[in-house]
Design goal:
The structure is a single chain. Helix 4 packs parallel to helix 9 and helix 8 packs antiparallel against helix 9. Helix content is 39%, strand content 21%. By secondary structure, the chain is α+β, with helices and mostly antiparallel strands. It has a single domain, classed as Roll (T-fold). Strand 11 and strand 12 form a beta hairpin. Strands 1-2-6-7-10-13-14-15 form an eight-stranded antiparallel sheet. Strands 3-5-4 form a three-stranded antiparallel sheet, with no helix packed on it. Strands 8-9-16 form a three-stranded antiparallel sheet, with no helix packed on it. The structure holds adenosine monophosphate (AMP) and magnesium ion.
């Protein structure tokens, strides 16, 4: 081993130190250039979103809500979904009448004694409810609460109780009727003209909340996603091509069997709402009693097994229309939706046969002809 391999000369040391620093600078510069090039490459040549979406499920408004978002920046996506769920919980605090501290529970306690001022959100739900009440000739009625409470389909099912008596139903019906609801648009107040009235926005609140959640996602720059409230869903923007887009594949459950009754391929901003007799019900002596009541008879509506509405001007409207058409039943409900409401519809009649509006076919991927087949 020779000594010159280990120079101890201080001038040499300084030269070598400068060279090392220069090398480090060159390596850092090349590294940074590569990072910038990679970033620009991703931006310019791959503007698509992640193949895998960010998805979260929470229990809100008495059902499992799923928000799915395709985004580029994971932390921004997560923050947006957080905020959307906060908005859903806020709407629940307004509209869930089963929570004693909710705004609607307060209205139901106080509005028989005098006018009660309500929030903008509750007012919007009540207004849409009244519109659908008038448009449906009373099949949809947000004052159906006393009948819903009397039937208490989940409670009766758990206790194995029989359906309520005709007298009980007649008595409950006296406190039902949106014509007995006094709404003052200027003062934004609600008053009950009959004691014992109960407002129930369960037929449209999920659709309303859906729009609020979608609004939060959009305001935070989320442009591609899907919000599912189980019975009312919304496609937001296009599905990314990397994930098989641009169409969204949406499935509707078979109300009498395994699997799906139909699958749709839908474009952006499309509402899908389903009302069915299989979602909440009890059986007594072989007869099914479910949660969608005909305010005109006081009994569970019998004219259909399930109704799916595709389209609609907004979430509350789409949600309310499916409930209204279910009460109207087949064929009246289907004709009404098609002619008067300009939405597409799939309806399973009381014997299980599937009917559709003609315009639905271009949206369908698969369809059973009969439920349970
Ligand atoms: P949906 O699942 O959207 O069809 O809504 C069903 C819910 O709407 C029920 O659980 C009740 O809270 C409420 N409801 C039941 N019958 C009616 C009706 N005829 N009009 C309006 N809301 C109703
Ligand atoms: Mg509904």
């Amino acid at each position: 081993m020779e000594e010159k391999d280990f120079p101890d000369d201080s001038a040499d040391e300084e030269r070598i130190g400068r060279k090392n620093r220069r090398d480090t600078l060159v390596v850092t510069a090349v590294f940074l250039a590569l990072v910038v090039a990679a970033f620009l490459g991703v931006k310019l040549f791959n503007p698509g979103y992640s193949r895998e979406p960010y998805r979260r499920v929470e229990f809100v408004l008495d059902d499992y809500v799923t928000i799915t978002v395709y985004g580029k920046d994971q932390s921004r996506v997560e923050e947006a979904v957080d905020a959307a769920f906060r908005e859903l919980f806020r709407i629940q605090d307004i509209a869930d009448r089963y929570r004693s501290e909710s705004e609607l529970a307060g209205v139901n306690r106080e509005a028989a004694s005098g006018p009660v001022r309500v929030s903008d959100e509750l007012w919007e739900m009540l207004e849409t409810g009244m519109e659908i009440y008038r448009a449906s000739g009373g099949a949809f009625d947000i004052t159906v609460g006393p009948l819903v409470d009397l039937w208490d389909v989940v409670g009766r099912g758990e206790k194995g109780e029989p359906p309520p008596s005709e007298e009980e139903i007649a008595r409950a019906r006296e406190a039902v009727g949106a014509d007995k609801l006094e709404l003052d648009a200027a003062a934004r107040t609600v008053r009950f003209a009959h004691p014992g009235m109960v407002i129930d926005v369960g037929g449209l609140a999920k659709g309303y909340a859906l729009d609020r959640a979608a609004g939060v996602l959009r305001s935070r720059g989320m442009t591609s996603g899907y919000v599912s409230m189980i019975s009312t869903d919304l496609t937001m923007g296009e599905k990314p091509s990397a994930a098989g887009g641009p169409l969204w594949r949406i499935a509707v459950l078979d109300p009498r069997g395994e699997g799906y009754l139909a699958t749709f391929l839908l474009t952006a901003e499309c509402y899908v709402s389903t009302s069915g007799d299989y979602q909440r019900y009890f059986e007594y002596r072989g007869v099914r009693y479910h949660h969608i009541l005909d305010p005109r008879t006081g009994y569970p509506a019998r004219g259909a097994i399930s109704v799916t509405v595709v389209g609609g001007r907004d979430g509350a409207w789409s949600d309310g229309l499916s409930t209204a058409a279910f009460v109207k039943g087949y064929p009246e409900g289907l004709q009404w939706l098609q002619a008067a409401q300009g939405v597409e519809c799939l309806m399973v009649d009381a014997s299980g046969v599937v009917h559709t509006t003609p315009g639905l076919h271009s949206l369908l991927e698969e369809l059973k002809e009969r439920a349970g087949s």
